[in-house]
Write a structure and sequence with these properties.
- The protein has 107 residues and is of the alpha+beta class.
- The protein has a single domain, classed as Glutaredoxin.
- It is 22% helix and 16% strand.
- The chain is built from three helices and four strands.
- It has helices at residues 23-27, 30-39, 79-87, and strands at 16-20, 46-50, 62-65, 69-71.
- The relative contact order is 0.20.
- The structure holds FE2/S2 (inorganic) cluster (FES).
- This is Ferredoxin.
- It holds the Pfam family 2Fe-2S_thioredx.
- InterPro entries: Thioredoxin-like_sf.
Length: 107
């Protein structure tokens, strides 16, 4: 039986950490990434496994909503950095930002 991941939790007041659990991301280790976020101290966020987020070639994809921050090629060892620096500290983890979504022109 296939797991039915919701696209986005509309019934939560909290911001969400969406971790893609679809084919390409799963093949790249997104189940471990989701587990790492679930184990983190993130009471201010909902952590949700989702279906495809449309960025399959650069997964595992992690999307923070409603702010719309997209991280790509996230590995389990990146999760503590994202949690501490961004989700708890309010500072983006630039090295993991999706370059097509968060374009930087160097000025
Ligand atoms: S499979 Fe994860 S973004 Fe498409």
């Amino acid at each position: 039986m296939e797991t039915d991941f919701t696209q986005h939790s509309a019934n939560t007041e909290k911001p969400c950490v969406l971790v893609c659990q679809h084919k390409s991301c799963l093949a790249a280790g997104s189940a471990e990434v989701l587990a790492a976020f679930e184990e983190a101290d993130l009471s201010e966020f909902s952590v949700i496994g989702t279906t495809c987020q449309g960025q399959c070639s650069s997964g595992p994809t992690v999307r923070i909503v409603p702010e719309e921050t997209w991280y790509c090629r996230v590995k389990p060892q990146d999760v503590p950095v994202i949690v501490e620096q961004h989700l708890q500290g309010g500072k983006l983890v630039r090295a993991k930002l999706h370059p097509r979504i968060h374009m930087s022109f160097g000025y």
